[in-house]
Design goal:
148 residues; alpha+beta; Lipocalin; 2 domains; 8-stranded antiparallel β-barrel; 1 helix; 8 strands
Length: 148
């Protein structure tokens, strides 16, 4: 009988140790989520007036704990434009928000999620002048990490 109790205790301890190891791995993975690097992809936008356009995007991002800074490059009407970005990253979920300043009267906000080497989410681009409100845009974003 003592032997059975001893084996039962060993089994429970072994199980608890395995659970602890798995939780430890999750915690380590959670702390290693990082979006630093180069990302490329597209945003498929629909304007308020109904026009649709797809823009190729290139981000260079730097993450320091939960803070993000970087640069967005994209082509619009044959011109390459760049814009500074900044944001906040949630280590627990991989979710983050990027704010993009295209100019004094045009701003973007992207709500994104990092999953492995892929970023997905949505973009909203707003224009401050009433005559440009029809050009306000929104749509899905998909980015992949560019290998060095």
């Amino acid at each position: 009988m003592r032997m059975i109790k001893f084996l039962a205790i060993l089994t429970v301890l072994s199980f608890l140790n395995q659970v602890s190891d798995v939780r430890g791995q999750d915690a380590v993975e959670g702390t290693t989520k990082n979006i630093t690097g180069k990302w490329t992809g597209n945003v498929n936008l629909t304007q308020a007036r109904g026009n649709r356009l797809t823009l190729p995007l290139d981000f260079t991002l730097q993450q320091n704990q939960s803070d993000i800074v970087g640069t967005l490059s994209f082509q619009f009407n044959g011109n390459v434009r760049t814009a500074p970005t900044k944001g906040i990253f949630d280590q627990d979920t991989g979710d983050f928000t990027l704010l993009v300043e295209f100019g004094p009267l045009e701003h973007g906000r992207m709500h994104l999620t990092l999953t492995g080497q892929k970023i997905t989410g949505s973009a909203l681009i707003l224009h401050d002048t009433p005559k440009s409100w029809g050009a306000d845009e929104e749509g899905p974003v998909v980015l992949t990490k560019v290998d060095k």
